[in-house]
């Protein structure tokens, strides 16, 4: 299968350059503020960002850290720092609780170090009830902002450093895309690239469309420019990020699709691997599969959230596919890209879900044979339609969750075994902290393999023989660099 080459129309300027310039001026000012602080402290001030949640938040934290480092802070592993920022997630209630717990625990650092500044941002702050709780019960928090105005962090930093007042700035929405500000990438060899922001799907359990706003696509020209720049800086692996990557480009008007963007990214000179996260099953086109099949440097891993295997529940979830359509799509993927792993997200305990509905979910897990699955207990999110429906008792949710988990683990183990003895390319990501003399690599299909080696192998790609399967990971050996 081949696809004709596609030329993008001239990229219209999209990044808000005026705002970027404005923020760069604030960054200069913050640099002077931080120098003053350093003079008072007699050392460089330290900063720490605590990131919760998904890849989007991880990417946002790289932007926040980029600003802090450019302003003259030094990063530290400890929360006992001169500036601590919590970048929060609110997708499930346990994420909220973890943030409140940690926030409570750092108050004693501030007692010891009154000049310490504490900030909180991200998805949780887009919910007024959380902001109210922080205003009332956490008086030592100096800065609160949300997802839509993250690009103004340099400005807020100045305000926080120049006054003792608490700064709270929250926006309901934004149509602006402000890139081109500093960013500190966590890994030298792999990087995330935002392709869309927000989500239009309104799955009835999900808070994301409310806290991240409407879907906005970045222009392909700007995305490709970023990919080229990253490659020139030594990045080998790119992860295209969006809540629903398959609907990429719909708001741009041109005839740009995710398939075309994916193809163009994979064809950028020097890109060794392109991953993407997350596709929605309802929008998964044949064109995307053709592009993946035609490009060995597109990851052999497709994360395809199922959520439920019951057509009735899927309808109530507003997922816009049926059990049969999902299975047919998974089969099509297995046929078009036989070496791809398929992983998924599953929610158990959605309002009105019955034992038989869970049987349907288990049936899909068995039939698709997921290589891995993140299974979540449904968590009620205020403001979403499902929060107003009759809830399933906790004990039942837990028992059904266990039932699904057992099958998911069984299936994942079986799938992992199939790789035994194969030789596949993988990039070494880090030194293994558990086993001395070992490093950890990730294959294109997302499988983790521990191999003998040292730090000099990090960021390099090797052919790896998969020797011993340990359920969800392997022990193996590099048999040559590629
Ligand atoms: N409860 C439980 N899980 C949820 N997810 C999203 N919202 C909820 C919720 N209210 C899960 C979905 C999604 C993943 C990122 O988080 O499975 O794919
Ligand atoms: Fe949430 Fe559904 Fe959007 Fe994913 S597609 S972010 S689950 S509303």
Heteromolecules bound: 5'-deoxyadenosine, iron/sulfur cluster
CATH superfamily of the largest domain: Methylthiotransferase, N-terminal domain
The number of distinct helices, counting runs of at least 4 residues, comes to 14
| 3D shape | globular
Provide the gyration radius in Å: 23 Å
CATH architecture of the largest domain: 3-Layer(aba) Sandwich
N-to-C terminal Cα separation, in Å?
A: 26 Å
Q: What's the SSE blueprint?
A:
Blueprint: H1 17-41, E1 46-51, H2 55-71, E2 74-75, E3 83-88, H3 93-105, H4 107-112, E4 117-122, H5 128-137, E5 143-145, H6 153-162, E6 167-169, E7 190-194, E8 196-197, H7 208-212, E9 216-217, H8 220-232, E10 237-241, H9 258-266, E11 273-277, H10 286-294, E12 301-303, H11 311-317, H12 323-336, E13 341-348, H13 355-368, E14 372-377, H14 394-417, E15 423-431, E16 438-443, E17 448-452, E18 461-469, E19 473-481
Helix pairs in contact: 1-6, 9-10, 12-13, 13-14
Explain the overall architecture.
The chain is of the alpha/beta class. 37% of the residues lie in helices and 21% in strands. The chain starts with 16 loop residues before the first helix and ends with a strand. The N terminus is likely disordered. It binds 5'-deoxyadenosine and iron/sulfur cluster (SF4). Iron/sulfur cluster (SF4) binds next to helix 7.
């Amino acid at each position: 299968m081949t696809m004709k080459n596609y030329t993008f129309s001239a990229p219209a300027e999209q990044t808000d350059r005026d705002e970027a310039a404005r923020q760069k001026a604030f960054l200069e000012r913050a640099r002077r503020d931080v120098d003053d602080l350093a003079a008072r402290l007699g050392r460089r001030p330290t900063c720490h960002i605590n990131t919760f949640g998904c890849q989007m938040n991880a990417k946002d934290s790289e932007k926040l850290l980029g600003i802090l480092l450019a302003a003259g802070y030094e990063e530290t592993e400890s929360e006992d720092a001169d500036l601590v920022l919590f970048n929060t997630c609110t997708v499930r209630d346990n994420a909220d609780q973890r943030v409140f717990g940690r926030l409570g625990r750092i108050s004693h650092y501030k007692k010891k170090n009154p000049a310490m500044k504490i900030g909180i941002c991200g998805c949780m702050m887009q919910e007024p009830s959380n902001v109210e709780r922080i205003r009332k019960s956490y008086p030592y928090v100096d800065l609160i902002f949300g997802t839509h105005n993250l690009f103004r962090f340099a400005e807020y930093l100045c305000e926080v450093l120049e006054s003792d007042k608490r700064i709270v700035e929250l926006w309901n929405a934004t149509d602006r895309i402000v890139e081109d500000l500093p960013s500190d990438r966590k890994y030298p060899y792999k990087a995330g690239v935002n392709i869309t922001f927000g989500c239009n799907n309104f799955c009835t359990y999900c808070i994301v469309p409310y806290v991240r706003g409407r879907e906005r696509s970045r222009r392909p020209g700007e995305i490709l420019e970023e990919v080229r720049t990253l490659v020139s800086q030594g990045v080998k692996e790119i992860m295209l990020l969006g809540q629903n990557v398959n609907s990429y480009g719909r708001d741009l008007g041109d005839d740009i699709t995710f398939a075309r963007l994916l193809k163009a990214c994979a064809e950028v000179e020097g890109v060794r691997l392109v991953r993407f996260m997350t596709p929605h099953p309802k929008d998964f086109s044949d064109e995307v599969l053709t592009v993946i099949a035609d490009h060995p440097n597109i990851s052999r891993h497709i994360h395809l959230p199922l959520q439920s295997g019951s057509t009735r529940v899927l309808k109530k979830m507003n997922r816009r596919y049926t059990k049969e359509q999902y299975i047919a799509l998974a089969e099509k993927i297995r046929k078009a890209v036989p070496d791809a792993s398929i992983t998924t997200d599953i929610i158990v305990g959605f309002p009105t879900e019955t034992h038989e509905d869970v049987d349907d979910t288990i049936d899909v897990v068995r039939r698709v044979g997921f290589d891995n699955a993140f299974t979540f207990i449904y968590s009620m999110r205020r403001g979403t339609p499902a929060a107003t429906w009759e809830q399933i008792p906790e004990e039942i949710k837990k028992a059904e969750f266990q039932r699904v988990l057992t099958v998911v683990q069984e299936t994942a183990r079986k799938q992992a075994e199939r790789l035994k003895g194969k030789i596949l390319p993988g990039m070494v990501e880090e030194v293994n902290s558990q086993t001395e003399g070992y490093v950890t690599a990730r294959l294109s299909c997302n499988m983790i393999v521990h191999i003998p080696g040292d730090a000099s192998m990090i960021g390099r790609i090797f052919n790896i023989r998969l020797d011993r399967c340990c359920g969800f990971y392997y022990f193996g050996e590099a048999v040559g660099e590629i």
